[in-house]
Specification:
With 66 residues, the chain is mainly alpha-helical. The protein is built from three helices and no strands.
Length: 66
């Protein structure tokens, strides 16, 4: 939304993002599959929710933009 990456770049790299989320949830939680899922699923939902927000609410020009 701030213009660092395009929405298409996020869509193209979703597999890598889900893999990174899975690895982070593996490293940051105890060795319990339930807690890994409880951390990984919301992070994945937030990733795809961010894509939807960027797609349907694009950057608007502010009063100071040229």
């Amino acid at each position: 939304r701030i213009g660092v990456f395009s929405v298409q770049a996020y869509i193209d790299k979703w597999r890598i993002a889900v893999l990174v989320v899975a690895i982070l949830s593996m490293l940051l939680t105890p060795a319990d599959p339930g807690s890994m899922i409880l951390m990984g699923v919301p992070l994945t939902v937030l990733y795809f929710g961010g894509i939807l927000l960027c797609k349907f609410m694009p950057h608007r020009k502010g009063p100071f933009d040229e």
